[in-house]
């Protein structure tokens, strides 16, 4: 055998072995990955979207933070609302890494309030693009029962508990997610249990920039804290969450936000050994929050001039879902109510301007003289979830949001109106 042939065979054999090892490393089974085996990883992902038809549109395009604001009546479209591509990797038994690419937020098909150019995850040519949503290093058991997570991390706000029990992110965000409380942030977190053997009582603490995937642009940090307890052999969970961030802290303007949120969830098939699986059995949840927005509202006086007021935005969400045919067909229903702030003083003020992002929904569509940021919202959705195979879902549903004005100047507006959308949603998961 001559040298060139021997070299060719050696190179081919090396490439074959290397590719086989890389394939085994990347595509290890989920069970192998979860054992914490060093040098094991997995690729996973999911996507969801819809075919929708909007049968009614609010006359004043209210609800700036909602999916269908600004889309005109009788509009229909196919759309993809989220794509995830993730990679999880066990470096050693003590250290693991997480990477998640996401393409999700984009302007709706209509002309939403105040929008003239692409935003969200749309490029300049209106094509959807991926961004880095999570990238972090986890130091497991930095002390007994606690992990340290450093990097771009899922926050304690709703991802780890509330969203999992709701189980239908493909239909709608959770209550405080609609208000864009960060689901991820760049910072450092401690995640653990007070009783690491039984895991009934847990906590999640984090300090982050408060700017999600964007670079920090101020001197303030967002502080997150969450404690929870499982009850009834882990069929029920009770959760208490709080956060705080300064927004402006000059001599003349102390502007900040401070949220307190509670959540109670129930799952009928949960066990002490396996915990909750809200995709099966009967599940129910109630979530509520109050967000104190200090010196947030510029209130224009009827007599002239303006006052800077503090405000308490609040909301509540109730939902149920369960089996019709086990592992094949499920139902769900949900009701939310949201109030942007407390009592209005129509005898003193003609209008209110909110300064905290996503708590000043309307942006005064049409005219600042008749604009209204006081309106409450009542959201309702319901549908059925057909599961032809594991991790594949087809979900006929409706999406309804009603707006009710409370401002004195609402005589120039339609005080009550709504958005109504009918959809067939698809959702699939791979690699998990």
Keywords, separated by commas or semicolons:
globular, 432 residues, Porin
- The SSE order reads HHEEEEEHHEEEEEEEEEEEE
Look up the CATH topology of the largest domain.
Porin
The stretches of 5 or more residues where confidence is low (pLDDT under 50) are 13-18, 363-368
What is the average of the pLDDT values?
A: 87
Our count of helices gives 4
Q: Helical proportion?
A: under 10%
Terminal-residue CA separation: 48 Å
CATH architecture of the largest domain: Beta Barrel
Q: How many distinct domains?
A: 2
* Spatial sequence of strands, sheet with the most strands: 1-2-3-4-5-6-7-8-9-10-11-12-13-15-16-17
Please count the beta strands (DSSP E, at least 2 residues each): 17
CATH class of the largest domain reads Mainly Beta
Question: How would you portray this structure in words?
Answer:
By secondary structure, this protein is mainly β. The protein folds into 2 domains: 30 residues; 395 residues, Porin (Beta Barrel). The chain has 4 helices and 17 strands. Strands 1-2-3-4-5-6-7-8-9-10-11-12-13-15-16-17 form a 16-stranded antiparallel beta barrel. Strand 4 and strand 5 form a beta hairpin. The longest helix is centred in the N-terminal third of the chain and has 24 residues. The chain is globular, with a radius of gyration of 24 Å.
């Amino acid at each position: 055998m001559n040298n060139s042939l021997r070299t060719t065979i050696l190179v081919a054999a090396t490439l074959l072995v290397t590719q086989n090892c890389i394939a085994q490393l990347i595509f290890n089974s989920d069970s192998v990955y979860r054992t914490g085996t060093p040098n094991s990883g997995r690729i996973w992902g999911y996507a969801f979207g819809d075919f929708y038809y909007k049968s009614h549109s609010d006359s004043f395009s209210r609800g700036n933070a909602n999916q269908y604001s600004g889309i005109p009546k009788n509009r229909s479209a196919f759309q993809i609302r989220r794509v995830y591509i993730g990679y999880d990797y066990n470096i050693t038994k003590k250290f693991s890494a997480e990477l998640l690419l996401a393409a999700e937020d984009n302007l709706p098909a209509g002309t939403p309030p105040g929008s003239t150019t692409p935003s969200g995850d749309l490029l300049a040519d209106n094509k959807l693009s991926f961004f880095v949503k999570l990238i972090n290093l986890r130091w497991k058991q930095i002390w007994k029962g606690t992990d340290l997570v450093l990097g771009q991390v899922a926050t304690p706000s709703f991802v780890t508990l509330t969203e999992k029990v709701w189980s239908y992110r493909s239909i709608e965000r959770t209550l405080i997610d609609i208000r864009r409380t960060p689901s991820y942030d760049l910072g450092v977190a401690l995640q653990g249990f007070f009783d690491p053997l039984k895991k009934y009582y847990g906590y999640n603490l984090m300090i982050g920039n408060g700017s999600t995937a964007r670079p920090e642009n101020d001197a303030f940090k967002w502080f997150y804290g969450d404690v929870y307890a499982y009850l009834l052999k882990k069929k029920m969970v009770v959760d208490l969450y709080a956060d705080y961030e300064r927004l402006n802290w000059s001599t003349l303007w102390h502007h900040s936000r401070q949220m307190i949120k509670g959540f109670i969830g129930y799952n009928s098939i949960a066990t002490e050994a396996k915990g909750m699986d809200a995709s099966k059995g009967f599940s129910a949840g109630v979530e509520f929050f109050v967000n104190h927005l200090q010196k947030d509202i510029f209130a224009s006086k009827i007599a002239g001039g303006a006052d800077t007021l503090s405000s308490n935005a609040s909301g509540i969400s109730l939902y149920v879902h369960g089996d019709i045919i086990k592992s094949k067909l499920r139902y769900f229903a949900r009701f939310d109510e949201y109030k942007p702030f407390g009592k209005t003083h129509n005898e003193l003020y003609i209008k209110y301007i909110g300064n905290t992002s996503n708590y000043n929904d309307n942006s005064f569509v049409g005219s600042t003289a008749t604009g209204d940021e006081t309106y409450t919202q009542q959201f309702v959705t319901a549908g059925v979830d057909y599961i032809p195979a594991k991790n594949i879902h087809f979900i006929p549903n409706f999406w309804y949001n009603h707006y009710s004005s409370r401002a004195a100047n609402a005589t120039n507006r339609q005080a009550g109106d709504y958005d109504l959308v009918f959809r067939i949603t698809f959702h699939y998961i791979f690699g998990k």
